[in-house]
Amino acid sequence: MQKTKVQKFITENRWFKAVPNSLTLCNSLCGFAAILYTIRAFRASDYSAQALFISAWIILGAMIFDALDGLAARVFNAASMRGMEMDSLADMVTFGVAPAAIIAVMAHSIKDATGAYDAYVYAMSGIYVSCAALRLATYNVHAILNDKTSEDFSGLPSPGAAAGICSVLIFFNSAELYERFNMELAAYLPIYAALLGLLMVSRFSYLHVGKWIFSARRNNHRFLIMLTVLLLIAIFKVYAFAALVNLYVFSAPAMALIRLFKKNKPDTHTIN
Questions:
Q1: DSSP per-residue letters across 99-159
Q2: Do residues 197 and 130 lie in contact, with contact meaning Cβ atoms separated by under 8 Å?
Q3: Strand boundaries in 44-116, DSSP class E
Q4: Rounded to the nearest 10 degrees, how much is the dihedral formed by the CA atoms of 88, 90, 93, 95?
Q5: Cβ(95)–Cβ(158) under 8 Å?
Q6: Which of 4, 58, 80, 235 has a CB 3.0–4.6 Å from the CB of 34, allowing a cystine?
Q7: Angle, to 10 degrees, between the axis of helix 98-106 and the axis of helix 49-75?
Q8: 210, exposed or middle or buried, with CB in 10 Å at 0-12, 13-18, 19+?
Q9: SS3 for 223-246, per residue?
């Protein structure tokens, strides 16, 4: 089908082609800002948890840019190898390093922490960062080889892993539970971060949320689900958001266990 003048202008204008990479740079700058706020959370003699919550919100905000850069690349016909590499580098900073930095700095909220505790937290953070790097590199290899056979993700996407950490932090802050459970959160959140890292390099099949949302307008069932989700977030705000994010995180392992159970379930039918 022949392109209209407007479509031709949009897809061939060099300024429009710069939009996707500009959005990717905004993603990486959000990651840099989150790291800077995380550094501010720990000073020589003062620990400020509020800076960590601000970092978490910045990381979540970066996900908007991460979603829009791919959409812009398709709209403006500006997909490129450089854009793909930039996207992975930005994701590594924002969804890999920044959440791990939050976990590491949280260790300083425990005043009487030992060197062994610090080593434990740094090790869990290291697992998260390493898995994020491996996950993003593997995704790039699959994209280059063009061997993707499904629209779903193989392994938890790095934005989903970062959202898992940030949603827990924001939930505790919004529910005013941080001061009460700060030691427990600082002790157990690193384990959750390491688990998220392992899920990133797993072979569990995760739904591509972006593609699912953009296809919802053509599917009444999906559109109804999306409206229900938006309604829940509008009513319960952070609580619903945290629940939905972590439901997504554990949905793939849960479905895999259900399929395994059904596969190994003995056949109760007998032939008479």
A1: HHHHHHHHGGGSTT--HHHHHHHHHHHHHHHHHHHHHHHHHHHHHHHT----SSEES--HH
A2: yes
A3: none
A4: -70
A5: yes
A6: 58
A7: 170
A8: middle
A9: HHHHHHHHHHHHHHCHHHHHHHHH
Distance from C-alpha of 90 to C-alpha of 52, rounded to nearest angstrom: 20
Alpha-carbon torsion 17, 23, 24, 28, what sign?
positive
Q: Are 105 and 52 in contact (CB under 8 A)?
A: yes
Name the residue type at position 176: E
pLDDT 10s digits, 23-67: 999 999 999 999 999 988 876 556 677 888 999 999 999 999 998
In 82-175 the beta strands, taken as DSSP E runs, fall at 153-154
- Asked if residues 67 and 94 have their Cβ atoms less than 8 Å apart, the reply is no
Is 191 within 8 Å of 230 (Cβ atoms)? no
Coil vs helix vs strand at 206: strand
For residue 151, give the 3-state DSSP assignment: coil
Q: What is the pTM of this model?
A: 0.87
Structural Rg of the chain based on CA atoms: 21
Other beta carbons within 10 angstroms of residue 203's beta carbon come to 8
Total residue count of the chain as it appears in this document: 272
CATH architecture of structural domain 5-206: Up-down Bundle (1.20)
Q: How far apart, in whole angstroms, are the C-alpha atoms of residue 61 and residue 149? A: 30
